Please model this.
Amino acid sequence: MNKKIALIMVIITSMALAQNGKQVFETYCWGCHHQSAVAFGPSFMQIASKRSAEEIQAMITDPESISKILGYKRNAMPAFRLTSQELEAITAYILSFKPKSDVIQTTEKKAK
Model:
């Protein structure tokens, strides 16, 4: 496949996933979380700078258990039953708020 076509497909897929993630956010998360400001729960920017995709997904699907593993004494987040597509979309959307400096550091660590 032509490299330009492959790049275009990746961009289109990423845009679609981000749009789906935004829809999941507006449906399930908006009441307690905001993208960059603290609300009842931490902002997506805070979450993305501290958590991996796996930790984010575990917190969405089983917050009571993962809260204990992560060292929290309490948990106010309910468990959500999302489709695998919704879970992937909201995870990608949350991680899109990772500060750019964190992304650069993570990329450099993986390269070593």
